[in-house]
Design brief:
Blueprint (H helix, E strand, L loop, with lengths): L2 H7 L13 H12 L10 E7 L1 H9 L11 E8 L9 H19 L3 E5 L5 H8 L5 E10 L14 H4 L7 H4 L8 H16 L4 H10 L6
Antiparallel strand pairs: 1-2, 2-4, 3-4
The structure holds flavin mononucleotide.
The site of flavin mononucleotide has 11 residues, from strand 3.
Length: 217
């Protein structure tokens, strides 16, 4: 497959067929992730392959995104948080490069994926899967063969809307910068922090489900 096809046609897939992705394909996806650039070439990424719905249900019950309760395979991506360059979150950037490689490789193998960060607090994720404190859970990648063909949705902006030359030109920014209500974001941040740490009783989960963003694919 041409690189362009993977880059321009990959879409998130959240509903999968019953067919399992074979382990050699899973390994090839992980191997692609391991070829990504990492800060100082540390390559301190770790993967937990969750094989079977029961392992994902644990995460869903602890407060993760609703759609994962139907998923059967996923990879939890971890990265060593013992970094000096906190200012630029080296470990998050490194893990993100790993994840994007994995999504593109999966697409080229006909495997659908979704990058998921709607997860419980890191301490909870660590205790569920016995992760040491010096690894941060970065994201979950759900996997499977797509049940439906993914819709191609155009991007929100064109290159000319978001590209600045040499300086951050505020007039250019006006083209895309929707009004951001900072107090609303602060409130949402706080609510999410609290929700991620609450015990998962049905009432809270039902309320949270209502606020969760819903996607077509
Ligand atoms: C950092 C990050 C976190 C995300 N978290 C979630 C999530 O928790 N749940 C979900 O359904 N999709 C999640 N996504 C997928 C995005 O919703 C998706 O990439 C976006 O809607 C664009 O759609 P596309 O991937 O089909 O191009 C996440 C993507 C990224 C990059």
């Amino acid at each position: 497959m041409e690189l362009d096809e993977a880059v321009f046609c990959r879409r998130s897939v959240r509903v999968y067929t019953e067919q399992k992705v074979p382990e050699d394909v899973i390994e090839s996806i992980i191997n692609a992730g391991m070829c990504a650039p990492t800060a100082c070439n540390k390559q301190q990424v770790r993967f937990i392959y969750l094989d079977g719905n029961e392992h994902l249900l644990k995460l869903y019950r602890a407060g993760a995104a609703t759609f994962i309760k139907e998923c059967k395979q996923a990879i939890l991506v971890l990265y060593d948080n013992r970094i000096d360059n906190i200012e630029y979150s080296d470990h998050i950037q490194s893990a993100s490069a790993v994840i994007q490689n994995m999504l593109l490789k999966a697409y080229s193998e006909g495997v659908g994926t979704c990058w998921v960060c709607n997860l419980p607090a890191k301490t909870k994720v660590r205790s569920l899967y016995h992760i040491p404190k010096y690894y941060d859970p970065i994201a979950l990648i759900t996997l499977g063969y797509p049940k439906n063909a993914a819709k191609q949705i155009p991007r929100k902006y064109r290159v000319s809307d978001v590209l600045h030359y040499n300086i951050f030109d505020m007039r250019q920014e006006e083209k895309v910068c929707a009004f951001v209500n900072e107090s609303k974001i602060l409130l949402k941040r706080h609510l999410r922090r609290v929700y991620q740490r609450l015990p998962k009783i049905k009432l809270f989960t039902r309320i949270a489900d209502k606020f969760e963003k819903k996607f077509d694919n």
